[in-house]
Amino acid sequence: MDAITTAKKAAGEKAASLVHPGMLVGLGTGSTAYWAIKKIGEMVKEGLNIQAVATSLASEKQARELGIPITSFSEIQQLDIDIDGADEVSEDLQIIKGGGGSLLREKIVALASRKRIIVADERKYVKTLGKFPLPLEIVPFGWELVFKTLQTLQGVPTLRTKDDQPYITDNGNYIIDCSFGVIKDPVQLHQQLKMITGIVETGLFLNLQPTVIIAYENGEIKAI
Ligand SMILES: O=C[C@H](O)[C@H](O)[C@H](O)COP(=O)(O)O
């Protein structure tokens, strides 16, 4: 296992140790959250009694295969803890997510959770957001108009593709990845983008007061 994968595993397992009996747990998406779900699966096999809501079909599949009981918002209203990855975390704990295309479900789950744990390797921890192009979930109809509007906001948009076709999210939408350079005011940018009809959600996860677990390649783990 390479050093970055080892760091992701360490962050994921550290976060899993915060899951206690009886909790309702949000399961994140991506290659770091994967390790948390894997560890929680082991804990469930050893008798841990929890229920979980997954932030993507992929994570739900992983959880079901591990025997983690899955519930939904038709059964529950709030989660005790949400463990998820990030694409960028700034020093003031603002976050960009959505590199894996799951930002909408991830945000719904994060907002429904009392405690939010973000797991990331050291490469994700930055001074200010913006190097990672901001993922935006958009409805397919008229996506070209959203694309052009983003250009008028000095954004550099790219329609995400997979096998030369538009990438389709678990919700049947498209993703535009849009660079805005250094994001000086993420709250203002998020509000501006949410005003554009056709944008369903942005990958800016702001003011959520997360606990961020950062794993370093040298084996060190810091919780911020
Ligand atoms: O849509 C995907 C999510 O926001 C992921 O949590 C994020 O992209 C980080 O993924 P990874 O841990 O694979 O870098």
Automatic annotation (TrEMBL):
- InterPro entries xrefs: NagB/RpiA_transferase-like, Ribose5P_isomerase_typA_subgr, Ribose5P_isomerase_type_A
Binding of substrate occurs at 29-32, 84-87, 97-100, 124
Q: What does this protein do?
A: Catalyzes the reversible conversion of ribose-5-phosphate to ribulose 5-phosphate.
Q: Which GO terms describe its molecular function?
A: ribose-5-phosphate isomerase activity
Assembly and partners are described as: Homodimer.
Natural source organism: Chitinophaga oryziterrae
Reactions that this protein is recorded to catalyse: aldehydo-D-ribose 5-phosphate = D-ribulose 5-phosphate
Provide the E.C. number(s) assigned to this enzyme: 5.3.1.6
Which Pfam families does the UniProt record give? Answer: Rib_5-P_isom_A
The record's section on NCBIfam families has: PRK00702.1 (NF001924), rpiA (TIGR00021)
One biological process GO term for this chain?
Answer: D-ribose metabolic process
Could you identify this protein by its name? Ribose-5-phosphate isomerase A
Lineage, top-rank taxon, reads: Bacteria
Tell me a GO cellular component.
Answer: cytosol
Identify the catalytic residues. 106
Q: Which UniProt keywords apply?
A: Isomerase
The biological pathway it contributes to is: Carbohydrate degradation; pentose phosphate pathway; D-ribose 5-phosphate from D-ribulose 5-phosphate (non-oxidative stage): step 1/1
The record's family statement is:
Belongs to the ribose 5-phosphate isomerase family.
